[in-house]
Amino acid sequence: MKIFVTGSTGFIGQHLIKALLAEGHEVHFLLRDKNKAGLFSNEKAIPHIGSLENIESYREIFNQNIEVVYHLAAIPGQKWGFRKKDYDELNTKATERLIKACYGKIKRFIFTSSINAISDNQFRRDDYGKSKKRAEEFIQSFPNKEWSAVILRPAVVYGPQDTQGLMLKLCRLIKRKKFYFLGSGRNVLPFVYISDLVSAFLKAKNASPAAGPYEIIGPDLPTFQEAVTQIASHLKAELPRINISLWLARPAALFSESVAWLLKTEPLITQHRVDIITRHKPLGYQKAQRELGYNPKIIFSEGIKKTIEWYQKNGYL
C-alpha cells in the first residue's frame, strides 16, 4: 500500500512511519527540511520537500497512486508563542488545502484531532481546540462517496522519545520540586502511550465502516493526583504538598502570559496548561474498540516507568 504522512518528523509521526514501514508499506512523507530526508533508513521511505502552506509543493504526490493519507502535522496546543491566526492557518486552513488536493484521489484520509476539540460545560475550547474542531467539521462536510475519512482524538500522548510534550515538562517540574497541584488533583486527565496510539492509527486504515470521531486513550484513567504520585515515585522525588486553587491559578496564568509576551520569553504557566491539567474528562475508548478494533495495552504505571527510564538514560532528567 502507498501511504502519505504529514508531520513525519514529530514524535508521533516518527513512530507511525516506522510502524508502517515494518508492515511493508511504501511511505511518502512531507518535509520542510531537506537535511532530514534520510530520517528513515528504508528504501520504501520516500521524502518530499514541501510545506502544507504551499499546496503546489505537494499536489503532485497524489498522482502516484496514494491510497491512504495520515494527517498529523499541526501546531501542538502546549507550544507557547502562537496566536489564534497561527492555529487557524496551520491547523485548519492547511488541513483544508490538503483535503482539496487529495479528495477523489485516495481511498482513506485519517485526521489527527485532539480531545481538546471536545467542549463541555466546565471548560471552553481554547484556540488550539477550536482549530481542530473546525478542521473536523470541514472533513465531515465531504461526502463519503469518493473516499472515507477517519477522525482520531488522542488523549495526552507520552512515551520514549517525546521531548516536546507535556510529560517531560511535568517530570522536570516534579524532579526540581517546582510543581504544585492546581485544584484538587482528583480530576481525570486521559493519557495514551505512544504504542497504543500507533496501533489505533494502523487499525484506522483498514477498519470498515469507520468515521469517528474516536477518542484514543489508554486502558486506565488515573486521576491527575495518582499520575503525579507515580511520576514522583519513579523519580524518587518528594510529592508536592501545596494545592493552588483554580480561582488563583487562572489569573496567575493570564498575568504570566502577558509578561512573557512583553519580555519575549516563555511563561511559567499558561492558561492552556491550567485547563489541560485541571480538566475532568473521564472519556472512554469503547467506540474505537467497537468500530476500529482498538485495544490499548499499556496502563499508565507501566508506560510512565518506560518513559522516565528513557528520559534518564538519554540525559533529559
UniProtKB/TrEMBL annotation:
InterPro entries: Epimerase_deHydtase, Lipid_A_modif_metabolic_enz, NAD(P)-bd_dom_sf. Gene3D superfamilies: NAD(P)-binding Rossmann-like Domain (3.40.50.720). It comes from the Bacteria. Residues 3-207 form the NAD-dependent epimerase/dehydratase domain. Pfam families: Epimerase. PANTHER family: BIFUNCTIONAL POLYMYXIN RESISTANCE PROTEIN ARNA (PTHR43245). This is NAD-dependent epimerase/dehydratase domain-containing protein.
